[in-house]
Amino acid sequence: MEEEKDELAKFIRNRLVQSDDADDDWDLPDLEVWRQAKEQIANQVTVSEKRDRKWAILWFTLALLLSSLLYIGYLTRKNQNLIKQVQEQAFAMVDLQDHNHELSRQLAAVLPTPNLKEEVDLSAITAKVSPNRLHQKVKLMDVQEPPIQPQMNSGKEPSHGDLKVTAPEKSLEYPIQVETKPLNPALLMPERHLLSQTEFLRVLPFKSRQWAPSAVERVNENNWEIGVHLGLSSLQILTAANLGKEDNEVEQLEQTQTETFHLHLAYSSKTNWWIKAGVQYGEYAYENSYQLKTEYDESKEYTKPDGTVVNTVQLRTSYANLGGTQQVEIDVPDDADLKTGDLTLVDVFEKQRIKAWQFPISLEYRLRNKRLGWQLHAGLLASFWTLEWAEAYGTFESSKYESAIKFEEKLLDSKTTQMLLGIQGGMGVHYQMSQRLHLRADLLFQYQKEAQRQNVELGIGYQF
Amino acid sequence: MEKLYHQYERYWFRTCLRYSRNRSEAQDIMQEGVIMVFRDLQQFDPSRGAFKSWSNRIMINAALRFLKKHQWQLSFEDLMAINKVHSFDQRTVENLSAKEIIKVIQQLPSGYRLVFNMYEIEGYSHREIAEVLNISVGTSKSQLSKAKKMLRQKIESLY
Fold first, then answer.
1. By residue range, what is the domain housing residue B57?
2. How many structural domains comprise chain B?
3. Are residues B59 and B110 in the same domain?
4. Is residue B83 included in any domain, yes or no?
5. Which CATH number is B8's domain given?
């Protein structure tokens, strides 16, 4: 007997391997198979590639975040060095001013000296009060002419910008001539000038900690902001399926990920507070499989024009309240011998796509220390969802036989768009790149009764 | 690409027919398999075997994926007791065409069909089948035995 069975297997194997040239091309697939395969090969995005792409985006985002943090660290260090340099320069300026005072004292000591016959070159006594303001050389000369009057610039009325040197009358035993040059008015008030610089020095460390005071002030004047964000989103929704009866409903919490695009417009009427409105878009794909038990109902059997007997069941599937009821056809072969009440199982596999447009409005609080800052935001959310059926397969199983089921195209009733309301909150960090531009990263939580979503976003904001 | 497809389409489709229940399923498997073949074409190494067997293995993988996805009931339970085994008439079987044989194979329950195809036609061992289908070696053996019995019964019922 065993030999006979092996003979049969051997015969079948041989017969299948032989290529018999069939007349009716029964072993040739329809042309449609190649056409569709070719199409998919051309724009092939396999499941693994999609997964790879998501990972690539995730890695790219992480790399971007990491490089941003490194860049921020580098800039912070550079900034500290600059502050140090500015402080050193400021102290050097004070030293110069002290030196200047010393020179003034020396000058005062020189002026009343008698018998000053030789030309005294005081070029060494150079007062650099400010690198851009004064490099004034004062030269004292021995003059044999009649003594000058305290009023200089022979006959010319002193004007704004002329230096007026007045020596005590009794000390003018010998006439001297002083070369004059127009000076910056600021230098006519040396004490005041010095004071302001000292003050600058005193406040410098505090001010510089706030990056650039003038820039901060200017940023605060920019009340409007526009931003663009790219993100990764994870959406969790409640899905349900039943075969026309509530008692055989299967509920599942499904999760999927996708990339999102987000635009926002913000307005600030108060320092650090922003009100933001925006629009977000994401497309979510779902692959679901349900196994639904039901009792067979002979009364729903009918014969089709081609003579085949079919039974129908109504399959209802929903995604966060979006969904519809489909008429599903089950082939019932002659020898199925199914009776009303027999336990059967319908196994359904569906692919669905949800397009989500979301309109959030939120209040945001931002705080920045130097260039790096953080933000907290909370608000309301209105979403418009559209559901699309992509694919559906199924099988029908009883203890006696199994068959594929067919999904009719038309939906008996459906709800494919709806608006959902919810709340959202989040936090993040931002980095001020320039007076108007900042980079930001946000972690966002959105809650709607029918769905929850978490977003990680990277964006850029422009203030105007 | 098209030339390659037309060269092997008949061969691939026969494999798909053997693993499926009907032509429609076989075409779905074929489409998936063809996509996989052309996607992984760069991975084909001629030194490790012929293209025909490499591509056929991909078709089998596509069939297994399809069946796992769409037929949860790949149960390996005994669907029916086959007690009556008739004597084997070689002449009866010799009249069968490949088309008829495949039709008979398609009528086997999924579990029987898979194990029979993998063991008898493709030449997998029971251990390999057990690993791929996540069943025990004993189940694989018993499925094969029952598949052969059922096959004989169905062939005999044709005449």
1. 2-70
2. 2
3. no
4. no
5. 1.10.1740.10
Task: Look at A275 and A2; give whichever has higher pLDDT.
Answer: A275
Helix (H, G, I), strand (E, B) or coil at A353: strand
CB A205 within 8 A of CB A225: no
Report pLDDT digits (tens) over A285-314: 888 888 888 888 877 777 777 777 778 777
- For residue A132, the 8-state DSSP code is T
CB atoms within 10 A of CB A434: 11
* A143 located within any domain: yes
Q: Is A329 exposed, middle or buried (0-12, 13-18, 19+ CB in 10 A)?
A: buried
Nearest CB among A7, A15, A30 relative to B27 is that of A30
- Partner A contacted by B41 (CB < 8 A): no
Structural domain that includes position A112:
74-153+161-208
Nearest to A137 by CA among A107, A157, A117: A107
B75 assigned to some structural domain:
no
Domain count, chain A: 2
Interface of B with A in 45-64 (CB under 8 A): none
Taking only the tens place, the pLDDT of each residue in B61-112 is 999 888 877 764 455 554 554 445 555 566 666 777 888 888 888 888 888 8
User: Phi-psi category of A323—alpha, beta or left, where left has phi over 0 and alpha has psi -120 to 50?
Assistant: left
Is the separation of the CB atoms in A234 and A264 below 8 Å? no
Q: Indicate if B49 and B14 belong to the same structural domain.
A: yes
Angle at which helices B137-158 and B126-133 cross, to 10°: 100
What would the two tokens of residue A254 be?
């499904």
pLDDT at A168 over 80: no
Q: Which helix (H) or strand (E) holds A345?
A: strand A343-369
B47 in a domain, yes or no?
yes
B137: helix, coil or strand? Answer: helix
Mean model confidence pLDDT for chain B = 82
Q: Do B121 and A36 touch (CB under 8 A)?
A: no
| First-residue to last-residue Cα distance in chain B | 43
Decide if A46 contacts B126 (C-beta within 8 A). no
Does A26 fall in a domain?
Answer: no
φ, ψ (nearest 5 deg) of residue A294: -155, 165
Asked if residue A35 has pLDDT above 60, the reply is yes
Domain identity same for A243 and A171: no
Looking at residue A135, its pLDDT comes to 43
Residues A458 and A385 in one domain: yes
Q: Is the domain of A169 the same as that of A264? A: no
Alpha carbon A134 to chain centroid, angstroms: 49
Interface check for B87 against chain A (CB to CB < 8 A): the answer is yes
What interface predicted TM-score (ipTM) does this complex get? 0.85
Mean pLDDT of A27-52: 78
Q: Which two tokens stand for residue B103?
A: 């039709």
Of B13, B72, B120, the CB nearest to A27: B13
Percent helix, strand and coil across chain A, each to the nearest 5:
30, 45, 25
A235 and A191 housed in the same domain: no
Q: Does the pLDDT of residue A228 top 90, yes or no? A: yes
Give the integer Cα–Cα distance in Å for A375 and A227. 14
Supply the CATH number for residue B128's domain.
1.10.10.10
Q: How far is B34 from chain A (nearest CA, A)?
A: 7
In a domain, A243, yes or no: yes
Inspect the interface and report whether the beta carbons of B98 and A27 lie closer than 8 Å: yes
Question: Of the candidates B70, B102, B149, which has its C-beta nearest A349's C-beta?
Answer: B70
Q: What is the dihedral of CA A25, A26, A28, A33, to 10 degrees?
A: 130
Residue located via tokens 């510089």? A208
